[in-house]
Amino acid sequence: MHLLLPFAVLLVVAVLISERAHRTVLSTAVLFLLGGFLLGPGVTDVLQIEAGDPIVGGLAELALFSVLFTDGMRVGLADLRAAWRLPGRALALGMPLTLGITALLGHFVVGLPWLESFLLGAVLAPTDPVFAAAIVGRKEVPGRLRHMLNVESGVNDGLALPVVLALLALAGGTEASGWQLAEEIGLGIAVGVVVPYLVLRLERLPAFAAVRAHQPLVAVSIGLLVLGVCEATHANLFLGAFAAGVTVATSGPEFRVEFERFGELVTELLKLAAILVFGALITPEFLFGEIPLVGWIFAVLALVLARPLALLVAFVGARLPVREQLAAMWFGPKGFASVVYGLIVLESGIPAADQLYHLIALVIVLSIIAHSSTDVVLARQFDTDEELQEWGEQEQ
């Protein structure tokens, strides 16, 4: 069966239960993941999808570009200057420590070589609070906590990608030399900065100003132009997307506001379609026949040990209330970036590619289920008094 009909049916169901999902443990992400699993090979065989199919790579690439562009829009330089201490701790200390602890687990629990263990850690280091929407979308959750999770997730996808590419190159997973890889990364960032900057400068000229009705399309057109230029020049399109989002948020913050509703809905649709496809790749044989017990042990420890320990160290001296620390330590859901980075590893052809992909996919599946099912419960634990609602606390 074609992908469109199952996706449309699941989308209608998701929209109809969205109000209830906002108040309960129901989750849109879990709905699409479970839908893909049930419709995929080995269950009902409605969707016949394999990892090497063009739709998998193409949809994942387009969705991640959109996700990174949207993430970059959330973290303009003004936002980082206004409240950088907590996100800075999570990114500068928490993320490398999460990567390192995950690598240790990969080496000592699963038995992976060190290089592959660090590659595994790099792929699983980014977070995505979209899978824990109640935390970042509820007013009863302290503003500084929501801000920290938003900024952290907005930045760490882009920070992890060069590390993933570099480690993959060291493992022999790409034909690009070190200089060529650096050139692709640098060119991607340059395209992501220069193209939006020039377009925004042109838009401010009287002859080119966009009418009010078309202003949401300014950021969308910039994103598409960056995508096209990156494809034409072989620049790294993911870093180009992230840099473009940051540039728009910094140089044209008014367009970020216009883009927010329309652009994020488009990104959400692409992400849900990709999760549906990802769910169809996770067959019963994949989960219970191809992953040994040590793989399950690794996946559980990667969720309940790696990030909590990392942020426990990162928050030393932060004077953050214990309840907020615990929430931040738990809500490090493995997001869509990890799905795509895992597919990049799988398609790289390195000897451990299949084993790494199985471990990555298992962690993501468990993360989506665990975090998307506990966000509302935890959000309700926060008081709604003025002190917890206050935005401008010293530790921002």
UniProtKB/TrEMBL annotation:
The chain crosses the membrane at residues 47-69, 90-112, 118-137, 158-179, 185-202, 209-229, 269-287, 293-316, 328-350, 356-378. Residues 12-373 form the Cation/H+ exchanger transmembrane domain. Keywords: Antiport, Cell membrane, Ion transport, Membrane, Transmembrane, Transmembrane helix, Transport. It is found in: Cell membrane. Pfam families: Na_H_Exchanger (PF00999). It comes from the Bacteria. It is a multi-pass membrane protein. Its main location: membrane. This is Cation:proton antiporter. It comes from Georgenia halophila.
